Amino acid sequence: MPGAGKSTAGRHLAAALGWRFVDADVEIEQRIGLSIRAYFEREGEQAFRDLEQQVIAELVQIRPPIVLATGGGSVLREANRRALKENSVVVYLRASPEELFRRLRHDTQRPLLQVADPLRKLRELYRDRDAFYRETAHFVIETGRPSVPTLVNMILMQLELAGVVPDDERPLPGSLPSRSRR
Ligand SMILES: Nc1ncnc2c1ncn2[C@@H]1O[C@H](COP(=O)(O)OP(=O)(O)OP(=O)(O)O)[C@@H](O)[C@H]1O
Ligand SMILES: O=C(O)C1=C[C@@H](O)[C@@H](O)[C@H](O)C1
Ligand SMILES: [Mg+2]
């Protein structure tokens, strides 16, 4: 969901592992030379989704190891759900609409939230998308209200338990985000 922490936690996770970090939204903005909000206003949501699909298809082909933060709406298209699930290990950072509203109530950049009642919009997005996020994810992490470093450690522990990240790649508690070995 928008505001779940994909960009923030993703960047810290990559730094902790010494892996490359790529944010699909940033990649899109670099290609179009506009903010996503401006592009939405000028070309509409479907044009953005077409571009997003093209970018996701390319980014999942980058040679690992990388941490990829997707846009919140990338799960809306079946092609993206498949590309992500088949080519990567997907973590769903779950948060309630109420918690997301607390984080984003002053946001001016997320086009879908520039409405009279953003909490209501977040509830609608959650209702429409939660099943897609679950279908796409290999792991679900409840973000609740931990600090970002704690959240990153929760993700690392989950990946380590699943054998995605070897034990010796996990930084010691308190050392986040620090490691850069590659
Ligand atoms: N676990 C967390 N606890 C508290 N605040 C958080 C947490 N994760 C992210 N935030 C804050 O919420 C805001 C949104 O986070 P972020 O930009 O990482 O979300 P996102 O998932 O990338 O959203 P989008 O899909 O719109 O790109 C930021 O201000 C960030 O600092
Ligand atoms: O949740 C969404 O649909 C979006 C989230 C952002 O990451 C951006 O990709 C864009 O603002 C759309
Ligand atoms: Mg983001």
UniProtKB/TrEMBL annotation:
Record carries keyword Methyltransferase: no
Biological classification of the source: Bacteria, Pseudomonadati, Pseudomonadota, Betaproteobacteria, Burkholderiales
Highest taxon of source: Bacteria
Localization (cell): Cytoplasm
Pfam family, one: SKI
GO terms of molecular function: ATP binding; magnesium ion binding; shikimate kinase activity
Keywords carried by this UniProt record: Amino-acid biosynthesis, Aromatic amino acid biosynthesis, ATP-binding, Cytoplasm, Kinase, Magnesium, Metal-binding, Nucleotide-binding, Transferase
Protein's GO biological process: amino acid biosynthetic process; aromatic amino acid family biosynthetic process; chorismate biosynthetic process
HAMAP family assigned to the protein according to its UniProt record, in alphabetical order: Shikimate_kinase
Residues that bind Mg(2+): 7
GO CC term (a single one): cytosol
Organism per entry: Sphaerotilus natans subsp. natans DSM 6575
Presence of keyword Cell membrane: no
Pathways per UniProt: Metabolic intermediate biosynthesis; chorismate biosynthesis; chorismate from D-erythrose 4-phosphate and phosphoenolpyruvate: step 5/7
Protein's UniProt name: Shikimate kinase
